[in-house]
Amino acid sequence: MRGIGNIIVGIVFIIGGLSGQLVLIGTNSGELLAVVGVGLIVLGVIKIAKGGGSAQRPKIKIGNQAVVRQEAVVYTAQDSHSQPLTKLGAGSRVAVVAAAETNDVLWVRVKLSDGQQGYMLGHNIAQT
Fold first, then answer.
1. In a 3-state reduction of DSSP, which class is residue 40?
2. Residue 78 and residue 56: Cα distance in Å, rounded?
3. In this structure, are residues 60 and 122 in contact, taking their beta carbons and an 8 Å threshold?
């Protein structure tokens, strides 16, 4: 979505610069601001072509093992305010049971070595 933002700002710069309503700070030039606007539009198009310019989240494969990247809490529900089940240290191994994204947050249901299941934030694990 960041590519769209670049395109919108670029259009505003072009219109504002060529109409004389806006100028590039330090140069007092509307034409130069329009050139910057064209550059922003080109950058926005490139970002959209490459997938929006945001980092792509790695796919979580159900049934595979995962390693805890850093100390992390395992919760009883997909909510960081829910009751903690346990805390795992970096390097701990878990089995991935399910994965779901809620409000742009990746939650992974994991099975612990003792058989208990709980939920972890997806950025805390890496699949092996």
1. helix
2. 22
3. yes
CATH code at 65-127: 2.30.30.40
In this prediction, residue 115 carries a pLDDT of: 94
What are 96-110's pLDDT values in tens digits? 999 988 877 899 999
Per-residue pLDDT, 60: 83
What are the tens digits of pLDDT across the range 30-39?
999 999 999 9
Strand partners of residue 38: none
Residues in the chain: 128
Distance, in Å, from the CA atom of 43 to the CA atom of 3, rounded to the nearest integer, reads 7
Instruction: Produce one character per residue of 7-17: b if its CB has 16 or more CB atoms within 10 Å, e if not.
Output: bebbeebbebb
What's the rounded Cα separation, in Å, for the pair 114 and 5?
Answer: 48
In this structure, what are the phi and psi dihedrals at residue 68, rounded to the nearest 5 degrees? -75, 125
AA identity, residue 123: H
Strands 125-127 and 105-111: unpaired
Distances (CA, A) of 108 to 13, 85, 96: 43, 14, 7
